[in-house]
Amino acid sequence: MGKTMTTSDDYPNEHYQKLKNELRRGVLILAVLAELSEEHYGYSLRKNLMAKGLEIDEGTLYPLIRRLEKQQLLTSEWREENNRKKRFYTLSDIGRQTLDALTDEWRNVETTLNTILS
Amino acid sequence: MKMIENYISNVKHYLPDDMKEDITEELANSLYEQIEDKQQELGRKLNQREQSQLLKNMGHPMRIAAAYLPNQELVSKDYFPAYKRALEYALAIVIGISILTALPHIFTDRSVIGSLFSALFNALDTVLYVFAWITIVFYLLQKWQVGLDSIYAWSPENLKSKSSKLSINRFEMLFEIVIYSLFLSWWNDLVSWPSDILFENNLLPVSLSSEWQSIWLIVNIVVAASIILNVYKLIIAGWSKISLITDIALNLVSLGIIIQIALFDQYIVLQADKLTDINAVELESMLNSVVYSIIGFIALVCIWELYSNLNKIKQT
After folding, report:
1. Residues 6+ apart with CB under 8 A from B300
2. Which intervals hold domain Transcription regulator PadR N-terminal (chain A) (predicted)?
3. What Å distances lie between residue B299 and B216, B217, B220, CA to CA?
């Protein structure tokens, strides 16, 4: 390999942050859809994503799942759990098909990028 | 928890009515659960500073609320190039018309400075209205997602050259319009210049010779046509075939007028009864030579413009 990995610490400037955010923004939807193959409410979804290494703030995640629901990729219902009303989200049928298609697309992009980057 | 409640109520305030309850309940539950998790981790209650930091990490309530709303731009980036172009055209038209309509008032009102400021504020007022209306129109277009195809309708075959040699600086055009308008006002006696020359302690009245009367009408037509052409150029900010041909025609007519002027016996007349002094006669002759030189200079400018426009016309 012989290549050194460049991290955000090497270029802690605002341009790098913007580029990194742009790069991540594209994959967030895929990650959220994949995670919502199992039912989650907002906070549990965020905790799960963070546990798997994907940092995402509430201000981005919650509006995003609302948008995905509006696009009929998710369904939701309010339920009470531990004396607290929570809105649980899960993939709809369209969401599941979209996740499959996006996953294929992701694999293509990954293969292409690996070829370019190697 | 007062701080958390205040935060939630602020987010609620910035949300539309139909979203208020739903979103704030979800957000509040998430916040409280986060606090509980933190408290469990630390084995104690969060203090004020820690609660404040948690909310700071969430972001300003207005931004949090805005993230839930669609269409967060007055004019989106898809529409923006057309919006900017529309603004440029509209503002150029407004400024051009404002100058033309304000000039007669500026020269006829008692206070030139006062009427100048009044004209400036009127123009600014109109500019702001135009700016607002165009922004509203584009906001609605992008809100309803209409007009994009018509706005950007194009074909490679119909694209015209945008060579930098064919572009026009709007500020220069504005300057020319003002100069032409001032000249036209003077030519038609709307404004008067100081017309006395101090010579050997005498004020000698200077006037144009009667021969200038013969070209009064044609000069009015040429200058008025030049103003109209410049307003068109101000709007387009570039040369087109039509504007080049018109400009060439106007330059040819101007050259014709200049030849006619060159044939005048006299351009400037000093008042006859003051011309007893031989030096005064020489002064009159010198003034005529100055005017002759100016006319010659204008002829050279016309010839240069003709040459330059003929070159440009090949590129259109």
Report:
1. none
2. 29-100
3. 18, 19, 18
Give the count of alpha carbons within 13 A of B212, CB side only: 13
Q: Per-residue pLDDT averaged across B84-91, rounded? A: 89
Chain B residue with minimum CA distance to A84? B29
d(CA B166, CA B233): 11
Q: How far is B66 from chain A (nearest CA, A)?
A: 9
Mutate to test the interface with B, among A43, A46, A66, A88 (most CBs of B within 10 A): A43
Q: Quote the pLDDT of residue A1.
A: 40
- Beta-carbon-side half-sphere exposure of residue B153 (alpha carbons within 13 Å): 5
pLDDT digits (tens, 9 = 90+) for A3-43: 444 554 555 677 888 888 888 888 899 999 999 999 999 99
- Which residues of chain A does B28 touch, with a Cβ-Cβ cutoff of 8 Å? none
Per-residue pLDDT at A5: 47
- Judge: B23–A62 Cβ closer than 8 Å, yes or no: yes
Nearest residue, CB atoms, A85 vs list B23, B25, B27: B25
pLDDT 10s digits, B266-313 = 888 877 555 566 666 777 788 888 888 899 999 999 999 999 888 888
Residue spans per domain, chain B: 2-67, 72-157, 160-316
8 Å CB contact of B59 and A59 = yes
Domain ranges of chain A: 15-117
What is the DSSP secondary structure assignment for residue B309, as one 8-state letter?
A: H
Interface size between A and B, measured as CB pairs under 8 A: 43
* B64/A86 Cβ within 8 A: no
What value of ipTM does the predicted structure carry? Answer: 0.78
Q: Is A57's CB within 8 Å of B57's CB?
A: yes
